[in-house]
Amino acid sequence: xxxxxxxxPFNVRNLTLPNRIVIAPxxxxxxxxGCMTDWHLIHLGQLALSGAALLTIEATAVxxxxxxxxxxxxxxxxxxxxxxxxxxxxxxxWSDMPIGIQLSHAGRKASTxxxxxxxxxxxxxxxxxxxxxxxxxxxxxxxxxxxxxxxLDGLRRVRDAFAASAVRAARLGLGFIQLHAAHGYLLxxxxxxxxxxxxxxxxxxxxxxxxxxxxxxxxxxxAFPADKAVTMRVSATDWVEGGWDAEQTIEFATRLExxxxxxxxxxxxxxxxxxxxxxxxxxxxxxARAVKAAVSIPIVAVGLITEFEQAEAIISTGDADLIALxxxxxxxxxWPWHAAAELGGQVHAPNQYLRSQPRxxxxxxxxxxx
Length: 370
Ligand SMILES: Cc1cc2nc3c(=O)[nH]c(=O)nc-3n(C[C@H](O)[C@H](O)[C@H](O)COP(=O)(O)O)c2cc1C
Hints:
It is a single chain. Helix 1 (38-47) runs parallel beside helix 2 (78-94). This protein has a single domain, classed as TIM Barrel (Alpha-Beta Barrel). The protein has 370 residues and is an alpha/beta fold. The longest helix is centred in the middle third of the chain and has 20 residues, at 152-171. An eight-stranded parallel β-barrel has the order 3-4-5-8-9-10-11-12, surrounded by five helices. The protein is built from ten helices and 14 strands. Bound molecules: flavin mononucleotide (FMN). Flavin mononucleotide binds at residues 24-27, 58-59, 102, 180, 182-183, 233, 267, 302-305, 325-328.
């Protein structure tokens, strides 16, 4: 049987990936004062045994006020760094899957409730809430609080915080950084004309709206080891008339490539409550394909990719270089094993689990040490 496209190796800067399956960042709302807990060891630990090529740590706040919720992970001081270090040390003892991190600032969408406790935003007076910051003082939605608009000192503080977290990520030996410019969080808030109404050099024209995200990219690129990848996650459209769209995303992607970005992860939406998303299997893949046509750096597709043949088709037709899984791999943490079995590929499994290989898939597991 020919080697399936989904199980062909691929390189992103210095990362050698055995297949095309990456684990998307997923907030767990289980941190304490920004510090990872045992939950993260259990959760990331099981995903590190999944046979995927890469694991991305959830949206990790570069400043306390940049957390989506009070229970988010952070990487802004020695305590948060040490807590993440403990989790990584344990996982690395048993898995050599490359692990990267999504660095994030939630902007006006910070200070929200943990999703399973409700929806909406805490008031700044609530013990679990705080005052938020954004490009402009426009609340996300009815019932949300107006953020403070960031002045030039504030922009410097946020940019420097991204760079400082990148230094901490490097010290932790993380394999790559993904900057979060998607889903309506701070960097996306700068890009979209719906959330950025500034009249200085950071607002107005597309050039000006891209300025702060590109400055953050440059600062992080300079702070992270040159041989390691720095990538960007974007929302390719707001799905709102007059908002950020595919055309602007393509311009942004071209600029990112020129600034040395190593890959672009193409998601969508999250900026505006009026979004009309044509939700369905592979619904964001056409956006990934459009960005891929405009640049030569690797492109990651994500969003309702759940079936093995569906993933294989995305890679084999060249719509994207990699596919990312979120809900699908929570539901089936051995999704890559099952995909390899179905498609005729091979995956790494921990030695402790080798005896689980079903008889009909006798070459499923790669047994030589990595
Ligand atoms: C539990 C959960 C947490 C998530 N947290 C993040 C996050 O931290 N950062 C991010 O960019 N996207 C986050 N997402 C979005 C996913 O990364 C992904 O883009 C989305 O779920 C669509 O992919 P899927 O259909 O494979 O789930 C999260 C999704 C889920 C289900």
